[in-house]
């Protein structure tokens, strides 16, 4: 069961040697394709929530149609059965959506207060015409940076380690329904996967796991046999010389 972070995690890309997000997504999806063809391993994605999130993420970051085609081809889209899984899934789902909305609303109120207080303090002693003249520049150059730092700290304080989006809960519900492992780099998902008795695999180890499977599959053994023969031929040639 893939969360969006299974394809987009920065640490995973660094481990695999890719700097581009799109190239990293392609590489992981190619591994998933090989695993499905050689071992019949199916990687699911909750539909429409996580699927839509992945699709929009790829489009927003300028990935070409090949990436979205791979998502459509090699990931199995399935809607979680929120009413039959043995947790109060629908209530849980609505609660998470509600909490996300309230967290964002709270952040918006705080941001408005920061903007208002900062601009009033900056222009307290300036005439009104000067205030209008410099307001846009000051907001962009000074207050914008402060707001950015505030958002990062706010999210770290309130959202780290909790389920704060509908796609997060869809990943867990569908994994529970299918008895599947969850692939993600989200501490909130990891924490709740443990609570629900769902297997969890960190996104940055997932590609290596697939490579290990493939190494011992028919194609991998064939390639290893070729490499062994090549080494043997080189050894014999060296002995002859």
From TrEMBL:
UniProt feature coiled coil, ranges: none
Record flagged with keyword Coiled coil: no
Region named Disordered: 219-241
InterPro entries per the UniProt record, alphabetical: RNA_free_RNase_P (IPR014856)
Annotated catalysed reactions: Endonucleolytic cleavage of RNA, removing 5'-extranucleotides from tRNA precursor
Protein family according to the UniProt entry: Belongs to the HARP family.
The name this protein goes by in its record: RNA-free ribonuclease P
Species, as recorded: Methanosarcina horonobensis HB-1 = JCM 15518
Source organism phylogeny: Archaea, Methanobacteriati, Methanobacteriota, Stenosarchaea group, Methanomicrobia
């Amino acid at each position: 069961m893939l969360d969006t972070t299974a394809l987009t995690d920065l640490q995973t890309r660094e481990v695999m040697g890719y700097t581009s997000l799109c190239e990293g997504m392609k590489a992981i999806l190619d591994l998933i394709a090989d695993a499905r063809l050689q071992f019949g391993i199916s990687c699911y994605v909750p539909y429409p929530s996580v699927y839509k999130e992945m699709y929009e993420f790829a489009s927003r970051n300028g990935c070409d149609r090949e990436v979205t085609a791979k998502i459509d081809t090699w990931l199995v889209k399935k809607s979680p059965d929120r009413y039959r899984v043995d947790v109060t899934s629908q209530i849980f789902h609505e609660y998470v959506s509600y909490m996300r909305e309230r967290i964002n609303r709270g952040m918006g109120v705080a941001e408005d207060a920061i903007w208002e207080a900062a601009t009033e303090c900056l222009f307290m002693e300036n005439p009104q015409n000067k205030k209008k003249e410099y307001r846009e520049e000051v907001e962009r150059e000074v207050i914008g940076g402060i707001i950015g730092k505030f958002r990062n700290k706010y999210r770290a304080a309130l959202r780290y380690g909790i389920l704060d989006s509908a796609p997060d809960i869809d990943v867990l519900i569908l994994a529970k329904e299918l008895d599947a492992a969850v692939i993600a780099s989200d501490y909130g998902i990891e924490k709740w996967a443990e609570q629900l008795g769902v297997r969890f695999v960190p996104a940055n180890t997932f590609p290596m796991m697939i490579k290990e499977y493939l190494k011992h599959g028919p194609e991998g053994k064939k390639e290893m046999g070729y490499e062994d023969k090549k080494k043997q031929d080189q050894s014999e040639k060296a002995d002859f010389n």
